[in-house]
Amino acid sequence: MTGHPTAAPPAGGVADRPTPGRATPGDVAGRADASFRQRYAAEPAGCWAAPGRANLIGEHTDYNDGFVLPFALSLRTVVAAAPAPDGTWTVCSEHADEPVRFTVDDLVPGRVTGWGAYVAGVVWALREAGHAVPGARLAVASDVPLGSGLSSSAALEAAVLAALVDLGGLDLPTGRRPRLAQRAENAYVGAPTGIMDQSAVIRCRDGHALFLDCRTEEVEHIPFDLDTTGLTLLVVDSRAPHRHADGEYAARRRSCEQAADLLGVAALRDVPTDGLVTALTRLPDDATRRRVRHVVTENQRVLDTVALLRAGRVREIGPLLTASHASMRDDFEITVPEIDTAVEAALAAGALGARMTGGGFGGCVLALVEAASADAVTAAVTAAYAERGFAVPGLVRVRPAPGANRLT
Ligand code: GLA
Questions:
Q1: What CATH number was assigned to the domain covering residues 231-398?
Q2: Does the beta carbon of 193 lie inside 6 Å of ligand 1?
Q3: Cβ burial 15-43 (10 Å sphere, 16+ → b, else e)
Q4: CATH number of the 22-56+66-225 domain
Q5: Per the confidence metrics, is the pTM higher than 0.85?
């Protein structure tokens, strides 16, 4: 959840770049390829890419067995890789001084730490699932900014997973990969995250948002290409330092699980919208009631957003995005002043809707704007930041891109 150091933010902010095709020098695939050749004095067997993601709506609903609607970004992490005959794993990154090496003996949760844990975790999870994982040499390059809430960790896990599956000829269909990557993060790295990020970076399609039922893992690809609508999506990197994000995330998750226990349901997904008022009366304190209200209303907002998108009524999702933000701010209490400032400034400058995206306590804001007012919104957010004395925010236009794939 917290990202990894292979993904330093590009100077000047989040830069949404074209999806790389074949490796060319300078782009992220070219950098991974060149780094492999330089580090190992050999040719990679191939390059595998996985994107960062933004979540259109549905926050902290995934681990409550609910609904989410993320889309992939064209910012990507690329892994160049080849088998290692000695059966060990070595991985270098353009943003780390030293490579990480591990052997079968290190495949014990907690043994490999730091960014290498995401790689070792994937190897560990594959072996736990009974796959004969080949030893490998890997080189990582990434344009997904670190710790901005755009899922640099899931991008690394998914790119490594795709590489190892192909190198080993493993039988692991795409639909089963998100759970395995999530297991790496939950059980090896030790972050209690849900299934959204890994599903998004693996299963998303170009020009679509991914409507995911996190209980059944059923997906529907919802057309969400704004190019023809006169609308634009802006991602604002709030530049807010993560404030206790890991501990607070775990606390929110615990309190949702405790509430589900108290209500006698398997997960908060099982509290229907029209049963919310009654459910709240059965909860012991105001904080728990607000956590539950967020999750139940957020699930409904995802369903409402999907219905509007299916009907082609894209502009009308704006108020749902803004309501989602208010719920995260007031009920789930996971926003910070930089994030709230970006949302308020974007709305005041004419955004149709704006909300924090991702786990919270920093990260990015997503704003839906008329293409013609994108510059005005950008200027307004930048000015509001200056007025409050915050670090200069990064703003970029994004569009839904494809999920993980093999490049070469
Ligand atoms: C992080 C987690 C996800 C999800 C979001 C909040 O990104 O990794 O599983 O819980 O926060 O929606």
A1: 3.30.70.890
A2: yes
A3: ebeebbeebeeebbbbbbbbbbeebbeee
A4: 3.30.230.10
A5: yes
